[in-house]
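[recover] target loaded
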């Protein structure tokens, strides 16, 4: 189970690395685009182009800040730690699939099994917190029976 947790953790790290790299490049590209705008005879067009580039920069900076926050959150998790009670960094195997409480990154296929990468702040992670193997919970009309926690 520790090897599986390490694979999930490594996937999360790589996911964030790529996301951060993409956002940093998008910010650089938008800044260059804004600086390369040349004032044409249509002054309004120039100002509109600069304003749109600035909005793009601001949007990407917000997304980058969130990705960096997720990276800091992930770095506080030790994938080698085993837990009996669900908390941040837990790998949860239920009768309806696997969940890794780490960052919000959708689903991933590891070793031919689907796992959901969920943020500790997500509603389902909040419901899982404090539970252990053989406990069950209801979420969105579905019952989950916890088989193992590590």
């Amino acid at each position: 189970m520790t090897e599986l947790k390490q694979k999930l953790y490594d996937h999360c790290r790589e996911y964030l690395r790529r996301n951060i790299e993409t956002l940093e490049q998008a910010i650089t590209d938008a800044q260059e685009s804004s600086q390369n705008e040349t004032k044409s005879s249509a002054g309004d067009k120039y100002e509109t182009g600069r304003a749109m580039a600035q909005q793009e920069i601001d949007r990407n900076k917000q997304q980058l800040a969130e990705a960096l926050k997720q990276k800091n959150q992930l770095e506080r998790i030790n994938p080698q730690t085993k837990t009996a009670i669900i908390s941040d960094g837990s790998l949860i195997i239920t009768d309806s699939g696997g969940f890794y409480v780490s960052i919000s990154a959708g689903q991933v296929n590891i070793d031919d099994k689907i796992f959901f990468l969920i943020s500790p702040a997500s509603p389902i992670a909040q419901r899982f917190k404090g539970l252990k193997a053989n406990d069950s919970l209801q979420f969105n009309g579905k019952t989950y029976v916890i088989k193992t926690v590590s």
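[recover] notes: Residues 33 and 53 are 7 Å apart (CA to CA).
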